[in-house]
Design goal:
The chain is an alpha/beta fold and 259 residues long. Helices cover 28% and strands 22% of the residues. It is globular, with a radius of gyration of 18 Å.
Amino acid sequence: MILKNKCACNCTAFKEYHKHSQALDRVVEYVQCESCGLITAPESMKYDLSSIYNADYFRNVDYGWERRAKILLMYIKYINILIPLKKMRICDFGAGNGYLSKLLINNGFNVLAYEPFIQNDTYLEKSYYCDTPFDADVLLMVEVFEHFTNAFEDIRKILTDFHNPKLIIFTTNLTDNVTEPIDDWLYLDPDSGHFTLWSKKSLTLLGEMNGYKLISLDNTFLHIFCKASDMKMCNNLKILSIPAKFAMKIRGFVKGLFG
């Protein structure tokens, strides 16, 4: 146990882990809060991450994007049963190659892709991309939360820039569910650009600090922030439960990709 700067939950007790990054050519120090379970890499704000997010990233590192997008399409269709997502303006934040945005648009959703670093080869026409924030009802953030280097401040700014959307639909694996030693966890990987790993407790705190309620539909991978002031929408989301067959597909994907 070591002492570091105080966590957002006010705890000052941390465990320390070290992971070698080939892309960064350095050992990355991670610390995990002993109270809320949040894992951060305190020095990551100083790193030059261009060596990670290069042309090979989607081919060799984030290789699960296509299957993940298809699962998210099922998930969003399911939410649309109780929440009229097709009537809302959706921002696919960090849309990358646009594959998920394209699937959603083809299924009748109103989506713009926010991606400041548009790739040459995309599945989405450039007219559907934007590189500046806009007024969105829904932020869709797929495998984004773990990439922040100053997460609480970065996410607060994003929510402000996008005019505090009604919903944030996002995916990230939780530290609560790790069965092996945490420093062997495949998700704890600097070469994947993962510098903030969340627990349910830390996500709940993040939501509360910004005026949102956390709803985790399967307690594993799929999560929603709903504006706490919109009790009707929060209650509608709380009564959703992922069908068993669907949940098995999600957990199978998560286990296969991240261990």
